[in-house]
Amino acid sequence: MFIGILVFLVGMCIGSFLNVCIYRIPQEKSVVSPPSSCPGCGEKLKAIDLIPVLSFILLKGKCRNCNARISLQYPLVELLTGILWLFVYMRYGLTIETLALLYLFSVLIPVAFIDLAHFIIPNGLVLAGLLGGIPLYFYHLTVRPVVFYRSNNWYAPLLGMVSASGILFIVALIGLLIYGNDGAMGMGDVKIFLPIGLFLGWKLALVTLLLSIFIAGIVCIFLLLFRIVERKSTIPFGPFIVLGTIIIGLFNDLLFRYY
How far is CA 241 from CA 16, 150, 257, in A? Predict the structure, then answer.
């Protein structure tokens, strides 16, 4: 119980840092310095203003200095990260799989929010994901097979990198040839499956791709039916990839059993 609460609280603190990443990475700013400040007035935030979720509640969603509204995204990301960290710990316990998913999800959360707002998946996040997957791969080679790979073979995670991303690359290439730059799938969607495949292996990576496409299709049908978007509207695929990865990461045993 105590460890679960601790994991949740640490997850919310990580979520606070992820908010910095979501805000600064699209602007090509450092996520380390300068210290956090109000986007409205530029006033440096005090420690009391940086407590995940609680500060937002105490400040009533406004800057202490200029009363500018604080985006609801901030507590949402903090809560989401904390909850996901807790779910991962409850699912896998104190294992290498838990550490792997905590890292992967922490990289993918900024991917979802940045792609949703800016229609880009920054290369820096792709690289961060790949760097985190390398130790997991060597653990698989030297200690024991990683559960996600569902294989003892050394090439399972490497095949994971090229399988789903390779399929999306072909789709993106066909879209580019038919529709030009305006209708082609973004290369960010292709590249983000490189770390996902490295973490999950080729079997789960392909299932993640299928699930992401299915979820995206259902959501797009809903948006079209209610005329929230038009047929030619651009909809980012990144958030659906992230959602599919989270579902597969947490519930892959259940899905494989019934599938």
Answer: 22, 21, 22
User: What's the number of CA atoms in the CB half-sphere (13 Å) around residue 81?
Assistant: 30
Q: Measured between alpha carbons, how far is residue 112 from residues 60, 126, 178, 202 in Å?
A: 26, 12, 27, 22
Which residues are registered as beta bridge partners of 37? 44
Q: Is the pTM above the cut of 0.90?
A: yes
Per residue, the 3-state secondary structure of 57-92, as one string, reads HHCCCECCCCCCECCCHHHHHHHHHHHHHHHHHHHH
* Residues facing residue 69 across a β-bridge: 62
The whole-number pLDDT of residue 43 equals 78
Could you write out the DSSP letters of every residue in 147-212?
GGG-S--TTHHHHHHHHHHHHHHHHHHHHHHHH-TTTSPPHHHHHHHHHHHHHHHHHHHHHHHHHH
